[in-house]
Amino acid sequence: MPTISKENYLKAIFSYSTELENNASTSRIANHLSISSSAISDMAKKLSKEGLVKYKKYKGIMLTPNGEKAALKIIRRHRLWELFLINVLGLDWSEVHDEAEKLEHYSSDFLIDKIDEFLGNPDFDPHGHPIPKKNGSIPEIPNVILLSEVETNNKYELIRVNDRDSELINYLKKVGLKLSSKLEIVDKVNYDNSISVMFKKKNITLSKKVTDNLFVRLIEE
Amino acid sequence: MPTISKENYLKAIFSYSTELENNASTSRIANHLSISSSAISDMAKKLSKEGLVKYKKYKGIMLTPNGEKAALKIIRRHRLWELFLINVLGLDWSEVHDEAEKLEHYSSDFLIDKIDEFLGNPDFDPHGHPIPKKNGSIPEIPNVILLSEVETNNKYELIRVNDRDSELINYLKKVGLKLSSKLEIVDKVNYDNSISVMFKKKNITLSKKVTDNLFVRLIEE
DNA sequence: GTACAAAGTTAAGCTTGCTTAACAATTAAG
DNA sequence: CTTAATTGTTAAGCAAGCTTAACTTTGTAC
Ligand SMILES: [Mn+2]
Ligand SMILES: [Mn+2]
Ligand SMILES: [Mn+2]
Ligand SMILES: [Mn+2]
Questions:
Q1: In angstroms, what separates the C-alpha of B92 from chain A's closest C-alpha?
Q2: CB closer than 7 A to strand D: which residues?
Q3: Tens of pLDDT along B195-220?
C-alpha cells in the first residue's frame, strides 16, 4: 500500500517516463512535485526497495510493471473523480483538477468502481485524457497533434488540454474554447510562433504558450 | 488549518464533550481513536496552544468556541458525504461511514457546499444524525429516547443509529430495521434487559447491546 | 583531455504523530 | 486518613517525509 506521498511520486514518474526517454530525471520530478531533488533521490531508493521503480544512481528512475500498475490506479481515480465532479455536481472544467488531486488518495476501490459504473465506464476525462480501466488497460488514444505543430488551412478538433494549468483553462474558457471545438488554421506566424485560427467564424490568435498545451485531431473533410 | 490528525481529535473531543460532563477524558479519546493516551496528552497541549481546546492537566479537555466550530465543520463534511454516497452512488447504509471518515478531510469548502446544495440542504444524515449547517448551527433534534429505556405498549419510530458500529448496522439490515421503522414494545425482559417488540407484524427480540445503540421517538396515537 | 557548470546524491537535521516505559496525580476502598 | 488501583503525564525514541548544505558524478566547452 503506497502512502499518499508515494502515490504522488509514482504518478509523477509515470507522467515523464512515458514521454520520449522512458526514464524520469530527478530534477523533472522534483520540479513537477515542488519538492527538493534530494527528497527525490531518497524516495527513489525506497520505491526501488518496494519493487515499484527501477533506480540506478545518476541514471534516472523508471517504473517497474508493478509501479506502473500502481500509478495507473491513481490516475484512474483522479480522472474518474474529475468527470464525476463535473457531470454530477456541476463543477467547472477549471475547478476539478485540484479537488481530484486530493480525492484520488482517499477513495476505496469499491467507491471508485461505483463512480465508474455511475458514469457508464467512460473512456476519457474532462480534459481529454484517457481513463485507465480497472484492469489497467488504457483506452485507445486518437491520433493527436500538438496545436503548435499543425498545418495551415487544415481543420482540427480540440481534444486534449493540459489539466495542471488552471490558468490555461481559465483562458480557454474566456476565449470560448472547449473540448471538441473546431478550429481552422488561418496562419502560422513565424515571428513569435503564434497561430491564427478561425473559431466560430471569428479569427483569434493563440500564442505559443497556449498552443504548446493543446492537442488536436485533424478533421477529414 | 488543522491537520487530518487534529481534525480527528477535535471530532472525538466533541463527541464526548457534548455528552454529560462537557469535558472529554484522555482515556476516552484514546480509546475512541485507538491511540495511546500519552499521544492524547501531547496533542491536548498543541491544540490548546492553537486555541482550539481548553486543557488543564489531569482535568480533561474541552473545546473552545473555535474548536467547536472546527469540529462541527468536519462533522458536517462527514454527514454530507454519507448522505451523498447513499443517495447518488447507491452505497449501503453500512458502507458509507468508513468512506466518509476519509473524504471528510479532503474536500474543499466549495465542494462541500456543492454537495449540500445538490442534496437540497438536508438536515439529517443516513443514520439520523443532524448535519451542521454552513454557519455552524445544528438542526433541531426531535425528542429522542434510547430504545433500552422505552415503556411497554407504546409505539416508537426508529430515528437514530450509532454509525460507528457497522456490525450493528449489518444486524439491523438482517432484521429489516431501518430509520423510520415503527416498533411496538411488547415486553421488557428483566432478566437480560432485552426487549420484545412488534415489527411489521412479527415479534422480535432485541438484546440490550442492540437497544443501547438505537434511538427512537414516541409515536402519538 | 581539462575545467567548470549542472545535475544528482549524501549527510545532518527538523516536524508531525505516533510508540513504550517510567513516573505523578487522582480516585476509590478500606 | 492511608493505600492501592486507575488514570494521566513526561521522557525518550522511532518512522515518514521533508529541508539545506556539502559533496560527487556527469556533461559541456574549450
Ligand atoms: Mn487533473
Ligand atoms: Mn483531467
Ligand atoms: Mn459516520
Ligand atoms: Mn452518519
A1: 11
A2: A 3-6, 8, 34-36, 38-39, 42-43, 46, 57-58; B 25-27, 30, 37-38, 40-42, 44-45, 55, 57-60
A3: 999 999 999 999 999 999 999 999 98
